[in-house]
Predict the structure.
Amino acid sequence: MENFKDTQDRYSKYVMPTYAPKMLFTRGQGSRLWDADGNEYLDFATGIAVCNLGHCHPGVTRAVQEQAEKLVHVSNLYMNEVMPKLAEKLVTNCFDGVVFFCNSGAEANECLTKLARKYGNATGRNEIISMNDSFHGRTLATLAETGRAKYRKGFEPDTPGFSQVPFNDFEALKNAVTDKTCAVLLEPVQGEGGIIPADVEYLKKVRALCDEKDILLLFDEVQCGCGRIGTRFAWQSFGVEPDAFGMAKALANGLPMGAVIAKRKFANVLTVGMHASTFGGTALVSAAALAVQEAFDKENVLENCREMGAYLREKLTEISKPYSFVKGVRGMGLMIGVVLDREAATLSGLCLKQNLVTLTAGECVLRLLPPLNITRAEADEAVEKIAKAMAELNKTL
Ligand SMILES: Cc1ncc(COP(=O)(O)O)c(C=O)c1O
């Protein structure tokens, strides 16, 4: 308790209050977290889709330890041995293309934005259309791309050159395209907006429209990528290739890394001096990300994600039946939303009382993002805890 109080006092005095955390975790292993008093929790949040292989995955930990003793950082003015190996590994499992490394999701989307503008400006086009309810980051350009006005409030004037249309509505998008449009940006599965997958047919039509008009199709896979929906890259679950896409969050299982992969056709749009990132692809973080890719190769992670995702969605639908406040269960792989008819924060709080860490999305969705390697026993344990939390919520109605 002392530890919690000391930390809370320091936090509230010295940390800018952009977050309001109520918990202190001091240790993690696999799907488990422990607080300062030694209480154990099952983690179905994974640091917001970051620790996809669970906490302190042995392969990642070993790679970080070994690299930390050898070389941490030299900047991108020089090569390190690890980053090109990681780029090769990513591209080998993707379409033919090239990678830019950065540190975060917003930075990956900034790179996509600059790539699209640089390409489009050659023919007088520089406007980007994104989707209502999307989330793309907190920098000024990615805020302008984000389809929820509340995130922009207070930071006016809005950065020009961006507009939004309803998600999964092809006609709306088609009507919004002008001779100034250089790119369409979307999340294949909207995360913060409420765990909303794109329709495959919609994506195919968007792809055809972009091909017809020479518009870049950009995917933000920051949350739904890196194996989260059961394929190494999210676009592979839909069979629709973007021209370029961004990832971050789980790329290095907890170390900060973002990346953009662009098709080879666009490999020379951004050239020497046009874009940069001091820490991007640094040796230490690249070693962690390479270990993540190796785990995907050897540890059956993606298959487990698909299996456990289907299993959890089925079980969650079953336990929700008695409760009219549950409107449905949706998602792909282990990106799961339990849709409520009210704010989800209360149910998430009741889950925490059962020592299950969850998240919310939109206002009314309980968001579950467990490690991709959870066992069936862990899935059952979580379902039991959520069932208890739902019963508790029902008592208060
Ligand atoms: C889809 C999506 N894009 C971008 C971001 C921003 O990522 P970061 O916080 O790493 O900048 C997020 C973060 O939640 C996200 O979910």
Notes: The radius of gyration is 21 Å. DSSP finds twelve helices and 17 strands in the chain.
